[in-house]
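Can't paste images in this forum, so I'm doing it all in text. The chain is below; anyone willing to post the predicted structure tokens underneath?
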Amino acid sequence: MCRAIELAAAAGDAGDVPVGAVIVADKQLIAEGENRRERDHDPTAHAEIVALRSAGRALGTWHLEQCTLYVTLEPCPMCAGALVQARLGLLVYGADDLKAGAIRTVINIPDGASSNHKLPVMGGILASTCQQQLQQWFAARRQAKRSNPPNQQK
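Text version of the structure:
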């Protein structure tokens, strides 16, 4: 999770929401990702998706049953669906997402009737660190907007 937090910081520094993800198989880091939506102009470039794509290439398969994904924020519906489709072995996440969490908080995609894979989940790992990172980033963004309001037309 510590590496995922580092990746989240890098995403935040680059202007993306600070979320980071790593994938481990056989105690080896095989893939990592950070939010890249703003930089890549890609609505699907969430940290989890970036990491899943990298893991699939590294392993030569989309079946990730032997893998654990560590991510700093509870996955959204898109990412939760991708984790189920990948047959991920274990999901470990940090902070709950009270607005869009699709693992346990708002909805529960892995345990839903349409899920063809029962994804094991551990939530709340280093949650306060992950939550604080997000809160500080959003607070800084709000402060910057207050300090530099857009030009108003007359």
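Residues 127-147 form the longest helix (21 residues). The radius of gyration is 16 Å.
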